[in-house]
Amino acid sequence: MFLLARLHVESLASAASLTIKHVRQKLQELPTTLDASYDNAMQRITDQEEDHWKVAFKTLAWVTHAFRPLSLRELQHALAVEPGDSELDEDLMMDAPSITALCAGLVIIDKATGNVNLVHYSTKSYFENTRQKYFAAYHASITLSLATYLT
């Protein structure tokens, strides 16, 4: 399964500065199921600095809760909106490589359409099953961001 291999590569890439012995150990510890690989990716996200994991969770919340695929520009705007602001601060807009890197391989940007998508349809299913665990607080956050953006 290519997706599982891709998730494994992402996991190993996060340990790139380790010794050969550490890499071998990581290889032995790689998850054998997609859900376990997704759990591993989410753990790598939460292990990042607070500002980074917050952006990753916000990105994943927007992408998983949107009724249609978001364009990169739409997602950049969504991530840059700060509740209470009267104008969009373009200096808060993140570039595509930063967004995807923070999300531990769980989101991709389709080069043909420019849309931001989850890496695989099973990723959507995973987040539907773990919505309460990861995104319970984001419904209000998304609503507040939308209200701020529209005013």
UniProtKB/TrEMBL annotation:
Q: What highest taxon heads this organism's lineage?
A: Eukaryota
Q: Which residues form the GPI inositol-deacylase winged helix domain?
A: 53-129
Q: Please give the name of this protein.
A: GPI inositol-deacylase winged helix domain-containing protein
Query: Per the UniProt entry, what species is this protein from, by scientific name?
Result: Melanomma pulvis-pyrius CBS 109.77
